[in-house]
Design goal:
By secondary structure, this protein is α+β, with helices and mostly antiparallel strands. It has a single domain, classed as 3-Layer(aba) Sandwich (Glutaredoxin), CATH 3.40.30.10. It has 3 helices and 4 strands, in the order βααβββα. Strand 3 and strand 4 form a beta hairpin. Helix 2 crosses helix 3. The structure holds FE2/S2 (inorganic) cluster (FES).
Length: 104
């Protein structure tokens, strides 16, 4: 059995989609599903996660290892995050959480 294929390489990109109460009330289950169904680049993993402490700006999505925080993510934003960020390497500026990505 090849265990390598089931192990997550920490250098690979992960998209953490909060599935805790506040985010769920704002539709994060749909956000998670949209990411899971998207045409993702190789070595990208979609993971449901617990509260990220940003409930007032939910749904919260965090991309690692680059530590990009997205806030108030909608299903329409998922397509843009996949195309522009995950495939193109350019974060979606208008959806960056200002607490972690201050606008200058
Ligand atoms: S419930 Fe999602 S950030 Fe707190």
């Amino acid at each position: 059995m090849n265990t390598k294929s089931t192990q997550l390489n920490i250098r690979d990109r992960c998209v953490h989609v909060c599935q805790h109460s506040s985010c769920l009330r704002q539709g994060s289950a749909i956000i998670l599903l949209e990411f899971q169904l998207a045409d993702l680049p190789e070595k990208t993993t979609i993971l449901p996660c617990e509260c990220q402490g940003q409930c007032s700006a939910s749904p919260t999505v965090v991309v690692t290892p680059d530590q990009t925080w997205y806030y108030r993510v909608t299903p329409k934003d998922v397509t843009k995050i996949v195309e522009q960020h995950l495939k193109g390497g350019e974060p979606v500026k208008e959806k960056l959480h200002p607490r972690f990505h201050p606008r200058v």
